[in-house]
C-alpha cells in the first residue's frame, strides 16, 4: 500500500537532500539522485507486478483541500493500466538517463544543481502519472514546467539557454492558461474534477454540444503547450540548449508525452464533442507535417531530433483526434524508448566529437563508435517505422485508424512518414558514413561504459516493444485485421530511405537549401513581431491614456485647474478688494433670491 | 400722468444714471446724478407724493450733491486715467448686474396684481398736511431719533475731518 | 396708463445701474454716487407701493414716512462717508479703491 507514495516522494526527498545538504559535494549529490530514482524504479516494478485489489485503490489519497460537496482536491493516486504503463516508461527511462548523466555530466560545474533538477522532474512527472483529479494534475503540470525551465537553463552563463528556458516556460504558460479555463469549465458544468467521478457526471456536457466543444478545446490547450503542437511548437527546438540527457528525458520521452497522456486520461470527456476531436486531429496532423518539413533542413543533430519529436507528437495527438487513444498511447510507449535512445546516442556522438553538434562537422563515425552506431541505427529504423521494429507497429496502428476516419489526414500522415524516413536517413548518412570532416571527428572514440550501457539497454525495447507478446501486459492494443495500410506506409518509408541515401551519400555540404524550411517557416520571427507589435500598440494606448486623459485631463484640468479655480474664487473673500466683496454680496443675494423665488 | 411723460422722465432718470457710472470726470458724474435726481423727483410728483418730490430736490439735489461737489473740489480730482480693462472683474460685474435685472423683472412679471391701475385720489390732496400729521403723530419717536442721529453724524464728521495734530 | 409694475421695473433698472456702478468703477467717489442711486431706487419703489396701497382716496403714508427717513439717513451717511473718504485721501493720497485693500482677515 505504501508503494505509490514511495515511488512518488523518494525523488522529492532526494531533491531536498541535494538542495540543502550535499550541494557542495557533487558526486555525492549525483549518487543520491541516482539512488532515489533506482528506488522508484524498483518500487514501480514491484507495483506493476502485484495487482492491487480494487477496494484498496480508493483509499489512496491524502485529503488536501476539502470544501465539502463543492470542491475536493486530494492528492490522490490512480492505479489503472494506463498509469502503470506510463509509470514503467517514466521510471525505466528515467533511471537509464540518470546513469547516463553520471558520465555525460561528469565534469560539469553545476552537477549538484543538475541532479536536483532531475529529481524534481521525476517527482513532478510521477505526480502527473498518478494524478486522480484535474487540480493535482495541473499542479504537477506546472511543476514539470518549472523543472524543464531549471534544466534547460542549466548553463545559465551562456546567453542562449536562459532565453530558451524563458521561451519554453512562457509558451507553456500560454497553453496552461487554456488548460486552466478548461478545468474551470469542467468544474462549473459537472461539479467535480475527480477523474473517477467525472465518468459518471458527464450529463451536463453531453446535453450542451457547444459547451462540450469549448471545454474539450480548452483542455486541449494544455496539450498544445506541453506537447508543443502547432502553434505553440516554437519552444521545443530551442529547448535543445539544455544538456543532452535532459533533452532525452524531458523533451523526448516523458514531459512532452504528458500532454498526450492527459488526453488519454480524459478521453471520455473530450470524445463527447466530435468537433473537438476533429480539431485535435487536424492540429496533430499539421504539426506532424510541418515539423517533418522543417527537420529536412536543419543542421544541428539535436534540432533534427527535436523536430522529429514534434512530428511524432503530432502523430500521437492525431491518433487521439481520430478516436484511437490506444494507438496514441502505444506510439507514446514505443516512441519514448526509441527517441530516448536516439537522443542518448546523439549525446554520445556529441561527447565523442568534443561537444560539436553540427552534422556537417562529423562523419565517418561508424568505424570509431560501433556501439553507438548500432544502437542509433536501431533507433532510427524504429522511428522510420521499418517492418519488424517497434515504431512500425505503433505508427501503423495510428495510420490504420486515420485511414478509417479521414482520408486527407491519412495521406498527410503518409507524407510525414516519408519525410521522416528521408531526414533520418540524411542524418544517419551524414553523421556516421563517409569520411570524417573535421579533426575532432577523426579523433573520436567510443564513449565510456556508463554511457553505452544505457544505449544498449534502451535498444532492446526500441526493437521489440511493438510485438504483441511484449506490449500486451502494458497496454491494450487492438488487433487490426488485414489492411493495406502497413504496405503503403512501408513503401513510403523505403522511398524516403532510398532518396535520402542517394542524395546525401558522400557529400560535404547540403545539396538542397530551402530557406523557408531552414528558417522554420519564420515562426519565431512572426511571433516576435506579433508580440512586439501588440506590446507597442498596448504601450501606445496606455501612453495616450496616461498622458492625455489621466495627466492632462484629470490631473491638470480637473484637480489642478479645479484647485486653482477654487482658490481664485475663494481669494476674493480675503484680498481686501472692496469691489470683490461687493461682487460676492451681489452674487449671494442673487443666489438667495433665486432659491426663494424660483424653487 | 400720461404714460408718455412717465416714460420720458424714466428715460431721463435712467439715462443720467448711466451717465453717472460711465463718465470719467467726477464732476460730470456728480452733475449727471443731479439730473437723475430731478427725474426721480418728477416721478415722485407723478405718484402724487408732492412733499417727497420737493424734499428730494431740496435735500438730495440741493444738499447732498453740493456736498459731493465740495469734496470733489477739495480733493481736486481730475478725470480718471484711462486704464486697461480688468476683464474678469468686468465680466463678473456685468454678469451679476445682469442677473439681478433678470431676477427683478421676473419677480415683477409674477406680480399680476400690480397691473391694475392706481386708485384715484381726492382732487385736492393736502399732501404736506397729511405727511405732517403722520410724521408727528405716529412717527414721533423715530423723528426724534433721527434728530439725534443727525447730531451724531455732525459730530462724527467734525471728528473725522480733523487733521493730525503734529 | 401707467401701472405699478412699470414703476417697479424702472426702480429695478435704476438699482441695477447703481449696483453695476459699485462693482465696476474704481474711483471711490463715483462708487459712492452709485450707492446713492441704489438708495433712490428703493425710495422710488416705496413711494410707488405707498400710492398703490392707498385706501379711501389717500395714499398709504407709511411708505412715504419710510422714504423721508431714508432720505435723512442717507444724507447723514453721505456726510460721514465723505469725511472718511477725505481722511483716507489724506492718508493714502489715492482715490483708487483697489489701493485701499487692508481690510483683510
Largest sheet of chain C: none
Number of helices of chain A: 28
Radius of gyration of chain A using CA atoms only: 30 Å
- As a whole number of angstroms, the C-alpha radius of gyration of chain C is 17 Å
pLDDT < 50 stretches of chain A: none
Q: Based on the structure, what is the oligomeric state of the protein chains? A: heterotrimer
> How many runs of DSSP E, i.e. beta strands of chain A?
2
Tell me what the structure shows.
The complex is a heterotrimer of chains A (599), B (166) and C (105). Chain A is 74% helix and 2% strand. The mean pLDDT of chain A is 84. Chain A is mainly alpha-helical and 599 residues long. Chain B has 166 residues and is mainly alpha-helical. The model of chain B has no long low-confidence stretch (mean pLDDT 87). Chain B is built from six helices and no strands. Chain C has helices spanning 4-24, 28-52, 61-92. Chain C is mainly alpha-helical and 105 residues long. Chain C has three helices and no strands. The chains are: A mainly alpha (599), B mainly alpha (166), C mainly alpha (105). The interface between A and B is small, with 10 and 11 residues.
Brief overview, please?
The complex is a heterotrimer of chains A (599), B (166) and C (105). Chain A has 599 residues and is mainly α.
Helices and strands, with pairings:
The complex is a heterotrimer of chains A (599), B (166) and C (105).
Chain A: H1 3-20, H2 26-49, H3 54-57, E1 61-66, E2 72-76, H4 81-104, H5 111-130, H6 134-152, H7 160-190, H8 195-198, H9 203-207, H10 209-226, H11 235-238, H12 244-253, H13 255-265, H14 267-270, H15 274-295, H16 301-321, H17 325-352, H18 365-368, H19 370-384, H20 390-405, H21 407-432, H22 439-442, H23 449-464, H24 468-471, H25 485-504, H26 515-518, H27 523-571, H28 578-598
Antiparallel strand pairs in A: 1-2
Helix pairs in contact in A: 1-2, 1-5, 2-4, 2-5, 4-5, 4-12, 4-17, 4-23, 5-6, 6-7, 7-10, 10-13, 10-15, 12-17, 13-16, 13-17, 15-16, 15-21, 16-17, 16-20, 16-21, 17-19, 17-20, 17-23, 19-21, 19-23, 20-21, 20-25, 21-25
Chain B: H1 3-22, H2 26-46, H3 50-75, H4 87-109, H5 127-137, H6 140-161
Chain C: H1 4-24, H2 28-52, H3 61-92
Amino acid at each position: 500500500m505504501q508503494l505509490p507514495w514511495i515511488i512518488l516522494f523518494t525523488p522529492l526527498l532526494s531533491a531536498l537532500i541535494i538542495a540543502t545538504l550535499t550541494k557542495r559535494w557533487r558526486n555525492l549529490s549525483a549518487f543520491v539522485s541516482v539512488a532515489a530514482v533506482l528506488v522508484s524504479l524498483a518500487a514501480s516494478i514491484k507495483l506493476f507486478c502485484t495487482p492491487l485489489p480494487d477496494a484498496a485503490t480508493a483509499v489512496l489519497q491524502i485529503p488536501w483541500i476539502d470544501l465539502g460537496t463543492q470542491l475536493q482536491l486530494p492528492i490522490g493516486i490512480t492505479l489503472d493500466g494506463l498509469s502503470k504503463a506510463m509509470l514503467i516508461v517514466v521510471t525505466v527511462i528515467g533511471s537509464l538517463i540518470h546513469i547516463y548523466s553520471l558520465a555525460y555530466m561528469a565534469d560539469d560545474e553545476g552537477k549538484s544543481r543538475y541532479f536536483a533538477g532531475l529529481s524534481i522532474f521525476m517527482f513532478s512527472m510521477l505526480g502527473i502519472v498518478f494524478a486522480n483529479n484535474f487540480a493535482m494534475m495541473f499542479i504537477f503540470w506546472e511543476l514539470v514546467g518549472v523543472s524543464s525551465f531549471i534544466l534547460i537553463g542549466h548553463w545559465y552563463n551562456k546567453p542562449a539557454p536562459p532565453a530558451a528556458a524563458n521561451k519554453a516556460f512562457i509558451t507553456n504558460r500560454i497553453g496552461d492558461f487554456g488548460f486552466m479555463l478548461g478545468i474551470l469549465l469542467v468544474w462549473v458544468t459537472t461539479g467535480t474534477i475527480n477523474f473517477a467521478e467525472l465518468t459518471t457526471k458527464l450529463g451536463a456536457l453531453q446535453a450542451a454540444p457547444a459547451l462540450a466543444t469549448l471545454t474539450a478545446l480548452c483542455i486541449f490547450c494544455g496539450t498544445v503547450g506541453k506537447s508543443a503542437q502547432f502553434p505553440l511548437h516554437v519552444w521545443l527546438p530551442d529547448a535543445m540548449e539544455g544538456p543532452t540527457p535532459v533533452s532525452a528525458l524531458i523533451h523526448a520521452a516523458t514531459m512532452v508525452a504528458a500532454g498526450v497522456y492527459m488526453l488519454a486520461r480524459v478521453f471520455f470527456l473530450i470524445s463527447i464533442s466530435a468537433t473537438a476531436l476533429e480539431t485535435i486531429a487536424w492540429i496533430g496532423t499539421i504539426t506532424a507535417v510541418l515539423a517533418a518539413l522543417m527537420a529536412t533542413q536543419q543542421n544541428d543533430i539535436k534540432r533534427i531530433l527535436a523536430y522529429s519529436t514534434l512530428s511524432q507528437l503530432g502523430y500521437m495527438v492525431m491518433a487521439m483526434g481520430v478516436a484511437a487513444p490506444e494507438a496514441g498511447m502505444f506510439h507514446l510507449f514505443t516512441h519514448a524508448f526509441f527517441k530516448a535512445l536516439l537522443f542518448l546516442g546523439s549525446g554520445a556522438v556529441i561527447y565523442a566529437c568534443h561537444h560539436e553538434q553540427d552534422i556537417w562537422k562529423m562523419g565517418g563515425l561508424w568505424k570509431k563508435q560501433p556501439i553507438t552506431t548500432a544502437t542509433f541505427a536501431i533507433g532510427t529504423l524504429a522511428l522510420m517505422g521499418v517492418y519488424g521494429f517497434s515504431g512500425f507497429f505503433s505508427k501503423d496502428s495510428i495510420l490504420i485508424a486515420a485511414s478509417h476516419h479521414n482520408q486527407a489526414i491519412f495521406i498527410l500522415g503518409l507524407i510525414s512518414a516519408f519525410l521522416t524516413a528521408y531526414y533520418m536517413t540524411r542524418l544517419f548518412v551524414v553523421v556516421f558514413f563517409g569520411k570524417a570532416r573535421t579533426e575532432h571527428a577523426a579523433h573520436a572514440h567510443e564513449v565510456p561504459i556508463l554511457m553505452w550501457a544505457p544505449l544498449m539497454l534502451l535498444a532492446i525495447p526500441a526493437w521489440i516493444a511493438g510485438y504483441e507478446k511484449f506490449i500486451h501486459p502494458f497496454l491494450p492494443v487492438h488487433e487490426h485485421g488485414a489492411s493495406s495500410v502497413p504496405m503503403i506506409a512501408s513503401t513510403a518509408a523505403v522511398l524516403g530511405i532510398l532518396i535520402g541515401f542517394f542524395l546525401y551519400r558522400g557529400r560535404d555540404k547540403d545539396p538542397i537549401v530551402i530557406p523557408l524550411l531552414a528558417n522554420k517557416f519564420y515562426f519565431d520571427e512572426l511571433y516576435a513581431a506579433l508580440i512586439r507589435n501588440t506590446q507597442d500598440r498596448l504601450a501606445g494606448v496606455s501612453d495616450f491614456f496616461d498622458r492625455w486623459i489621466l495627466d492632462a485631463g484629470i490631473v491638470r484640468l480637473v484637480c489642478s485647474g479645479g484647485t486653482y479655480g477654487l482658490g481664485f474664487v475663494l481669494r476674493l473673500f480675503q484680498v481686501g478688494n472692496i469691489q470683490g466683496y461687493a461682487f460676492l454680496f451681489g452674487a449671494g443675494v442673487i443666489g438667495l433670491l433665486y432659491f426663494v423665488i424660483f424653487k | 400722468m400720461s404714460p408718455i411723460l412717465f416714460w420720458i422722465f424714466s428715460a431721463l432718470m435712467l439715462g443720467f444714471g448711466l451717465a453717472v457710472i460711465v463718465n470719467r470726470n467726477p464732476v460730470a458724474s456728480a452733475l449727471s446724478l443731479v439730473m437723475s435726481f430731478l427725474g426721480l423727483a418728477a416721478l415722485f410728483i407723478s405718484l402724487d407724493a408732492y412733499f417727497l418730490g420737493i424734499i428730494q430736490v431740496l435735500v438730495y439735489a440741493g444738499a447732498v450733491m453740493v456736498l459731493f461737489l465740495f469734496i470733489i473740489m477739495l480733493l481736486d480730482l481730475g478725470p480718471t486715467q484711462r486704464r486697461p480693462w480688468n476683464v474678469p472683474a468686468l465680466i463678473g460685474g456685468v454678469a451679476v448686474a445682469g442677473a439681478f435685472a433678470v431676477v427683478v423683472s421676473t419677480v415683477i412679471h409674477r406680480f399680476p396684481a400690480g397691473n391694475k391701475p392706481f386708485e384715484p385720489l381726492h382732487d385736492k390732496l393736502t399732501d404736506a398736511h397729511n405727511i405732517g400729521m403722520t410724521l408727528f403723530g405716529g412717527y414721533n419717536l423715530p423723528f426724534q431719533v433721527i434728530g439725534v442721529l443727525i447730531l451724531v453724524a455732525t459730530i462724527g464728521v467734525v471728528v473725522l475731518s480733523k487733521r493730525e495734530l503734529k | 396708463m401707467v401701472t405699478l409694475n412699470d414703476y417697479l421695473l424702472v426702480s429695478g433698472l435704476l438699482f441695477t445701474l447703481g449696483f453695476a456702478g459699485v462693482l465696476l468703477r474704481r474711483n471711490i467717489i463715483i462708487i459712492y454716487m452709485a450707492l446713492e442711486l441704489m438708495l433712490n431706487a428703493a425710495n422710488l419703489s416705496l413711494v410707488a407701493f405707498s400710492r398703490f396701497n392707498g385706501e379711501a382716496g389717500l395714499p398709504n403714508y407709511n411708505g412715504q414716512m419710510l422714504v423721508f427717513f431714508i432720505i435723512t439717513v442717507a444724507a447723514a451717511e453721505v456726510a460721514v462717508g465723505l469725511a472718511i473718504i477725505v481722511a483716507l485721501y489724506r492718508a493714502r493720497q489715492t482715490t483708487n479703491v483697489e489701493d485701499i485693500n487692508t481690510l483683510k482677515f
